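Figure 2 data, in text form.
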Amino acid sequence: MLSPMLDGMLLPLLVAMFLGVNMGGSGTAPSFATAYGSGILRKEFIPGLFGLFVILGALLAGKNTAVTLGKGILPSESLDYTLTTIILFSVTLSLLFANLLGVPQSTSQSTVFALVAPATYLHELNARKVFLEIVPTWVILPIVSFGIVYFIGKVLIKRFDEKHPGYFFTDKRQNFFRWVVIITSCYVAFSIGSNNVANAAGPVTSMITNELNINPSGQNFLLIMILSTLIIAPSFGIGSSIFGRKLMIKTGIEIVQLGKVEASIISFITATLLLTASVSKGIPTSLVQLNTFAILALSVTKKGWKETFSNSVVKRLWLIWLIAPFIAFAISYLLTMVFHQAGLLSI
């Protein structure tokens, strides 16, 4: 028999791990879609590589984002067993909905919405953090990703190809860029670890510190965060093996065919933007959207605006990106209200 305290922690930890499985499925697309879409890596090798670098990213660069999601939106003392389970369960359902439709979804946005819901209901929302830091980042970074890749594709690559036709297509250079794509894909997975693992590890860390009466500003908080990360991060590799292939096809093949040079550029740019958001401000940000906007920019340079944005896959992306976070918010708000009125929240 488990002690009552450990028994209470079991359900939220299991939900967090299941969320990690779903995040792993969704995160595989922006990290390895370019490598898979350009035929560099076989699907059998991707989950292991993805899972390894997610764990490294979470441990080495995930602290700030975990702090934001653990106590930056909703006060950490409000995150008991029940509320933590509600938040993680709401995110999991919204992400599972997107995964089953084969559409890569922003876990970070669903997590923020799932935290905003009880924070709003309990009148404890840190509105400044959400509306002056997090939401503007969601708008600005995808535009930056699109703009950089559009400029590179429209100006630099095009001009280089005109002056040096066939430069990148010798066997020697193609083999070199094969390894560059693999390295940059692993770099993307590292960036995902720095940001997305916190979607589950942040609330779980605050929950554990609350239940153990630990000072959330002390060194013990960091230790618990590391332990939470080590429990949740391996689930990403499992999710990659379950959901990854279907989602990689959506972004790696069905929008535009990617060459090795283009794949390297997209991976490096999007991973750097996400890692910057994670390390500098601890902002939970959507790599899915950064990556997709970069691929859309490349598609525009090749196919034009009309053909790119009339693509049925792109239209489905917009729809699910809009719906899924509000599903997380609605479920989280409703369950918070029900459990609060039933006296099942310790607040």
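Caption note: The mean pLDDT is 85.
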